[in-house]
Each structure stands twice: as C-alpha cells, then as structure tokens.
Design brief:
Elements: E1 2-9, E2 12-21, H1 24-39, E3 45-55, H2 57-68, E4 71-74, H3 80-87, H4 97-113, E5 117-119, H5 121-131, H6 133-154, E6 159-172, H7 173-177, E7 187-205, H8 207-274, H9 280-314, E8 323-325, H10 339-349, H11 351-372, E9 377-389, E10 395-405, H12 413-479, H13 486-519, H14 523-527
C-alpha cells in the first residue's frame, strides 16, 4: 500500500510518500503526481521519500520523471538515500527506465481505451453460477448419483435375453450312455443342430435389493442438496464481493463530490484573500484540504479497481476484463420476519440440513438392506426355444423355474454391514442436530445484525445531513467575513467522516440482509431470481 500526504512548507508543496512504490500503486502515484504538478506547474514541489519501504523499477522510473518535471527529493534512511541519488541524476529516460515507462504508458492507454463490462448483481450471479468450476463439479456429482439410483432400480426389474446357437456334433454313444452298445456302430453323426429363443429372469422377493434402491435414491437426494449448497456458497461469495465493489464505487462518488467542493472552497478562499477579507493562511488551509481530498479520491479509486479485479476472478472471466457495477449501494427492503418464522424457513430450506436428512435416510436404508440379507430371496426363471436338426422341422420347447436362496453362513459379513450402517445413521443424526442448532444461531445473529445495521444507517444518514448543514453554515460565515476558514476545513473533515460512516453502514446493512437470506436458505432465490 502507498500513502501520499501533502503539506505546505513555506512556498513549497511537500509530498510525503509512505509504504511501497511498486505494482499497481505506481499508477496511482503517477495520477497523484500529475494532479499536484498541474496545480503547481511553476511552484516548488518536494517529495519526502524517507517513509518508503520498497521501490520497484516502475517506481524508480516514475521518480525520474518527477525529478525531470521539477520535483526535488529528500530521504534520510539507508534504503532511500541511494534511490534519491539515482532519481536525482540527469538523463532519467535511460535504457533501464524506458521499459518501465512504456509499461506505464500501456497501462494508462489500456485503462482509457477499454470499454468496461457493466453488470448488475443478478447478471453477475448468473455468470458465476454458470461458469463456476465448483458448481459444475457439484452438478456432475449429482448426475452420477442419479445414474447410480437408476442402476440400483434395474436390479429389481425383470431381465429378458434373446439367444441363438448352432452346433455340429459327433457323439460316442458308449461314452454318452455309460454302457457299451450291443451290435451296430457306437458313433452317431456328425450332424448339425440349432436353436433360437428367449430367456427371462425376475426377482420375486428380495428385500435387500429394494432397500439398496431406496438408499441410492437417498444418496441422489443428498447429492442434489449438496449441489444446492455449493450454489449458495458461490452466491454468497459473489454477493459479498459485489457489495464491496458497490461500497468502493460509493466512496469514489463521495470523494469526487468532496474534491469538487474543496476546489470551490479553495477558489472562495483565494477570492476572499484578493478582496482583503481573508488571509493567505486561509488560502493555504483550503489548498491543503483540497490535496487531502484528492488523495482520498485516489485511494478510493484504487480500492474500486481492486474490488472489481476480485469480482472478475470470482466470475471466472478473462483477467483483463474491466468491470463496472451498475447497481448502486442502497438500503435493501427489510423483511418482516420474526425469529420463529425465519427459523422455520431455515429448517425447511437450508441445503446443509436437507443433505444431512438425506444422508440419514440413506444410512437407514443401507442398514435395512444389510439386515435383509439374512432373509430368503425368490427368483423366477424361464426359457422358450425352438430347436432341431438341420433340414428337419424345428420343435418349440420351454422351461420354467422357481428358485429360492437362503443364506446360512456368510462369515460375519452381514453383521459387519449392519453395524457400519448403524454408525453412519447415528453420525448423520448427530450432524443434523448440530446443523439445526447452527441454523438457529445464524438466524438470530443475522436478525440482530440487520436491526443494528438498519438503525446505524438511519443515524449515519442523519449525521451526514447535519455535517452538510454544518459545512454550509461555516461556508456562509466565511463568505461573510465573520470567521476564518478553520470552521470550513473542520466541517469538510466532519463531512468526509460522515460520508464514510454512511457508506460503511449501508454496506453492513446489505451484508446483514444477505446473511439473513443465507441463514434461511434463500440467498440464491433472493438475489438471482
């Protein structure tokens, strides 16, 4: 982070740089320098670099540019002194500085030429829920669970197969009958035979297969609930980041208004000085306040860019995309929900609870399926075939069978499966109970935060109105020559603080509303639909 603090030292404007002059902060510093230099094209400007902790190549190129445009440097620590010496050397645009300067130029050109992508919150959520890898993976897992359920159901359905065969046989009758054949040849054939038909098999009674199918259905329901939970998580991330961008944009707009106001008040101070009503100190105070407001504007613009970049990452867009949020930061509609109603909604709609209940149901069905392995199973089979010798009429034949299977000893496998399913069922029950308690806590907390944030917005709005009135009255007193502009400067600072508090209060109100929607399991439906 980089902080630039302007101050007056006699006739010179002093800029104190603190932090890191590197990365994106170089561009912000370049914008700040352009504004300061445009204000004082001929006046002395001095930059105090003693507070810098790191300067990269682009930062050093900017310092050389500042020196070439008339800025002097001071710095008294061991890291800054060599930088001051190099930055003060003549011929700043050497071969080492040219790439950094070119990079700054390209950054500025791209920032000016690119058309930002404008998105509402609803549009941002639609993009995120469509392109999020987490959502896509969850949807695939849900599809696989549904196919597993279909496969389990297939075990309960009859199976039907068609077959055809052809054989060429030469048979030893002695070996076939098991006794010597008296007289005549003991070999038959070779001869050709064939057959064609269908076979069927149907489970008539198998409770284990039935419960396995029910368990697979419950697993599919759990996978669907988990997919909804992933969508809620992605929605929460996007909504929170969109709110951050809204807050940053509101801060930029407030800072721009205060810069315009400070400019007008600076002009007023100069006019008062020329008219003999004000003093040079009044003009100096107004100029210092103007630079402070400009610095706040630069910081707010940088925070807006950072918030937009984070939103681009969440939406899985091209990293070079410039975003602009179209929904302004405003108070959301307040829900009329008491705790009992909101808690009931949370128990009914939270995907985490739905998954826990589905897991419990699946574990119960798996336990029933394991216990049913001790019971007999009944299967019906049948075959219908037309067969005969080659060149002779074929004869239709059939076979119908009924089989029963009774497990007598399976080596303890059934007992182990039953015990495992019971443990899974108990675990799901404990998880469900913990989630119910968590839902109650989150609903009550969100409601308390929402009420507090709503009251805070009312107080902050009133404070902003009072701060604006204070500034208007201080300005009128200064215009009338009744007081110096100390009251004006103090009122400007009070207005800036009131603006920031109002913006933060609106941000917390929106975030609290989103927290309540998530606590009741209706975050996506509230913001995306």
């Amino acid at each position: 982070m980089l902080r630039i603090t302007p101050s007056e030292d006699g006739e010179a404007l002093v800029l104190r740089l603190e932090g890191k002059l590197a990365g994106p902060w170089v561009e912000a510093a370049a914008q700040s320098w352009s504004q300061f230099h445009a204000q004082r094209p001929e006046g002395p400007i001095r930059a105090d670099l003693s507070g810098l902790a790191f300067v990269d190549d682009a930062g050093q190129a900017l310092l050389r540019r500042m020196h070439a445009e008339g800025c002097a440097f001071t710095g008294d620590n061991c890291y800054v002194e060599p930088i001051v010496k190099r930055a003060s050397e003549r011929g700043f645009a050497d071969a080492r500085a040219l790439p950094a300067l070119a990079l700054l130029g390209l950054m500025a050109a791209s920032a000016q030429g690119a058309e930002p992508m404008k998105l509402s919150l609803k549009q941002a959520l639609q993009i995120a829920l469509k392109q999020s890898p987490q959502v896509q993976i969850a949807d695939l897992d849900q599809a696989k669970a549904q196919e597993d359920a279909r496969g389990s159901k297939g075990g309960l359905m009859p199976s039907l197969n068609a077959f055809a065969n052809g054989t060429r046989t030469k048979q030893n009758l002695d070996a076939f009958l098991g006794i010597p054949t008296p007289g005549g040849p003991n070999v038959v054939g070779p001869f050709n035979a064939g057959g064609i038909g269908v076979s069927a098999e149907a489970p008539l009674f198998d409770l284990s297969l039935w419960h396995k199918w029910k368990a697979a259905q419950a697993d599919a329901a759990a996978s669907g609930a988990q997919a909804l939970g992933i969508r809620e998580q992605v929605t929460a991330l996007v909504v929170g980041q969109y709110f951050s961008a809204q807050r940053a944009e509101a801060a930029v707009e407030a800072s721009q208004f205060r810069v315009q106001l400070a400019t007008a008040l600076g002009t007023l101070a100069e006019d008062q000085q020329k008219a003999g009503v004000g003093t040079g100190l009044d003009t100096l105070r107004a100029k210092v306040q103007l630079q402070s407001e400009r610095q706040r504007l630069i910081q707010a613009q940088t925070q807006l860019k950072t918030a937009s970049y984070a939103l681009v990452r969440l939406l899985a867009l091209d990293p070079a995309t410039d975003l602009e949020v179209t929904d302004a930061l405003a108070a959301p509609p307040m829900p009329e929900l008491n705790f009992e109603t909101a808690f009931k909604q949370g128990l009914e709609s939270r995907p985490e609870l739905a998954k826990a209940k589905a897991d419990e149901a699946a574990a119960g069905q798996k336990r029933e399926a394991a216990q049913a392995l001790r019971l007999p199973s009944l299967v019906a089979t049948g075959t219908y075939e037309s067969n005969g010798l080659q060149g002779q009429p074929w004869v239709p034949t059939y076979q119908i069978g009924l089989g029963i299977k009774v497990p007598l000893f399976v080596g303890g496998r059934i007992h182990a499966e039953v015990a495992k399913a019971k443990l899974q069922e108990q675990e799901a029950q404990a998880r469900e109970k913990a989630l119910e308690s968590q839902v109650g806590f989150e609903v009550r907390t969100a409601q308390a935060q929402l009420d507090a944030a709503n009251n805070e917005v009312s107080v902050a709005t009133e404070a902003t109105s009072l701060a604006q009135q204070e500034l208007d009255q201080a300005r009128h007193r200064f215009e009338a020559g009744v007081s110096s502009n100390i009251e004006v400067v103090e009122a400007q600072a009070a207005l800036a603080e009131a603006n920031d508090r109002q913006i933060d209060a609106l941000y917390r109100l929106n975030q609290a509303r989103a927290d309540l929607a998530r606590a009741t399991g209706r975050l996506e439906s509230f913001y995306a639909n």
